[in-house]
Amino acid sequence: MGEELTADTMFGYLERLPEQFTESLGLDLRWAEEMPRRYNCIVVAGQGGSAIGGDVLRTYCQSRLPVPVLVNRDYRLPACVGPDSLVLAVSYSGNTEETLSAYVDALCRQAHLVAVTTGGKLAEWAAHDGVPVIEVPPGFMPRAAAGYLFAPAALLLERLRLLAGVSEEIQETARVLQERRATLLPAVPAERNEARQLAARLAGALPIIWGAAGSTEVAALRWKGQINENAKSPAYYNVFPELDHNEIVGFEAPEDLVRRLALVILRDRDDHERVVKRMAITADVVGRRAASISEVHSSGEGLLARLFSLMYVGDYTSTYLALEYGINPTPVQAIDELKARMAQ
Ligand code: F6R
């Protein structure tokens, strides 16, 4: 990447997220007409920023598709993958070893394969193996290309008539993110900027992000990852109702650590009514022991818009948190070093 990676670089990426969705609508997927319409399972193989779109797809398909969508963040694929399966190998760089290994595994099991990437070995291997490649624009950090990495998979399933209404939901997602962006940009002062206010609350604390199982869980995972990668800070996530059966007890000792936990609850209009009640009681029980407790609400009608709206606030919050710490949000030196050492 030629340019210097600064905080402005990350803000520049974030600003372009809504348009990633509108641009993806122009993808030419006519080649998919030749593909089967029935699969025993659909697997998204990827890691980190390339895998999170798979989680959104899994969440979206849960109530819409009779076959399971699995996200595989490992070298090997599960035993259910075979000639009747569809595997999407997603890697922004095209050089992530776990994803390349899963790609080879899918090939050996004669699964139907599609690669989503900017290039690298994945594009090379796919060209050699006659596997279709959906090309993603280069020049982003993988985690900042969430729209480019998610939309092709969902649009492919729409093209295969496995899902309906995806294009409309992607359009709505772009619109909702544009509206949300207008309130989150660096030019918007703190009094009116939710992400700046959240970052100020998270600064100096250990962020714990709570979502709801099967829905906002993916947004909580994304928040955690973005706080790790952008603010270079530890962060953890968990989900209702499960956290009420264990994590809720862990707010007593050590007191000085508990006092530094900053809780963020992600809220969605489709949260189960019992989960809503749980959120209120849990906040009451543990909230007063922690440093702070905040709520972030989704916006939009469709599930995609709602999930990405929550994720977008997390993207900006984690970038403002980096600024609170005087840290450059863009580079991920620890990941680069690890990948380099693994390659030796
Ligand atoms: C970096 C990032 C990472 C990468 C991950 C996999 O911005 O988000 O989580 O996404 O290391 O690399 P790719 O996406 O190139 O397969």
Please tell me about this protein's structure.
With 344 residues, the protein is an alpha/beta fold. It has 2 domains: 7-164, Rossmann fold, CATH 3.40.50; 188-324, Glucose-6-phosphate isomerase like protein, domain 1 (Rossmann fold, 3-Layer(aba) Sandwich), CATH 3.40.50. 46% of the residues lie in helices and 14% in strands. The protein is built from 13 helices and 9 strands. The strands form 2 sheets. It has a 5-stranded parallel sheet with strand order 2-1-3-4-5, with helices on both faces. Helix 8 crosses helix 12. The radius of gyration is 20 Å and the shape is globular.
Q: TL;DR?
A:
The protein has 344 residues and is an alpha/beta fold.
**Which descriptor suits the 3D outline?**
globular
How confident overall, as mean pLDDT? 97
Number of helices: 13
Strand segment count: 9
* Rg over CA atoms: 20 Å
Unreliably modeled segments:
none
Distance between the termini: 22 Å
**Highest CATH level, the class of the largest domain:** Alpha Beta
Task: Please outline the helices and strands.
Layout: H1 7-15, H2 17-24, E1 42-45, H3 52-61, E2 69-72, E3 86-91, H4 97-108, E4 112-117, H5 120-129, E5 133-135, H6 146-159, H7 166-184, H8 194-202, E6 206-212, H9 217-231, E7 236-240, H10 255-258, E8 261-267, H11 273-287, E9 292-297, H12 303-324, H13 333-343
Parallel strand pairs: 1-2, 1-3, 3-4, 4-5, 6-7, 6-8, 8-9
Helix pairs in contact: 1-12, 2-6, 2-7, 3-6, 3-9, 7-12, 8-12, 9-12
Key attributes of the depicted protein:
344 residues; alpha/beta; Rossmann fold; 5-stranded parallel beta sheet; 9 strands; binds fructose -6-phosphate
